[in-house]
UniProtKB/TrEMBL annotation:
Predominant localisation class: membrane
Annotated transmembrane regions: 6-28, 35-54, 60-82, 94-116, 136-158, 187-208, 220-246, 266-285
InterPro entries xref list: ABC_transp_permease (IPR001851), BCAA_transport_permease (IPR052157)
GO terms under cellular component: plasma membrane
Matching Pfam families: BPD_transp_2
GO molecular function terms attached to this record: transmembrane transporter activity
Membrane topology (UniProt): Multi-pass membrane protein
Compartments it resides in: Cell membrane
GO biological process: amino acid transport
Keywords: Amino-acid transport, Cell membrane, Membrane, Transmembrane, Transmembrane helix, Transport
Name used for this protein in its record: Branched-chain amino acid ABC transporter permease
Protein family: Belongs to the binding-protein-dependent transport system permease family. LivHM subfamily.
Amino acid sequence: MGTFIQLVIDGLAMGSIYAALALAIVLVNQSTGMINFAQGGMAVLSAYVSYAFLGMGVPLILAIAIAVVISFALGAVVERLLMRRFEGGDPDTAVVVTVGLLTLITGVCGMIWSYNNLQFPSLFPGDSFPFLGAAISWRSLGTFLVIAAIMVLLQLLFRKTKIGLALRAVADNPRSSSFSGLPVGRLLMVGWGLAAALGAVAGALVAPRLSLTPGMLDGALVYALAAVILGGASSPIGVVVAAWLIGVLENLGAVYVPFIGHDLKIAVPFILLFVVLLIRPQGLFGRKTVVRV
């Protein structure tokens, strides 16, 4: 029983890493209607910015706060100067641009800070405490609680606030929103800025666990995208639950299903994804899209 609980706890901790990135992807999607493949690279860049300020003697909390502000500005600038040229056109073109942006950011980080593993300090203590025969680290628990809080805040943002509703309206129909008097361009910049700021928080949470490298979120990005599809791109709660589910099932499958093991555990979330999409194409918590003709 202790082994089972430990696997579940470790799966929730790893799922929280996927969820951190998935929430930023959902934020861009809810604000602009597109999937941003560069989100992982922007999160890594923000983690390096925090690391640079740490090297100057700035306290960890303050360094992360500065990185969040810089990331917000960077996200807004990227939308204004780059992505706006492709918005409203072929969605596939915009997606390819974000893939290119991911490659560019990763290369810039490697050029400036090298590709060596760097140690990034954690916001939470590194020791553990016992629970039902398992060991729970304060770092994993802290990451879990932060992600849960961000999930609730994002849900409230998009459901209960004027700016959240405006962001959703712009993502759904920019032209109609413009006719209604909404500042579409400004709202798109805010959406990208908020997603980049959330990415900064994600980078600060993930870097202590994975070690800071330019490609530290490449693998997590795949799982995050799976969580977005599985949970529903319109639901912050859905993607977090899906990310936790992926992390837990991946761990349990690796130990309790002999033919999977640790080598094939990456297939577990995609098998789950295939089964769910056959039943609910919009994802577990997503909304059906109604097209009127």
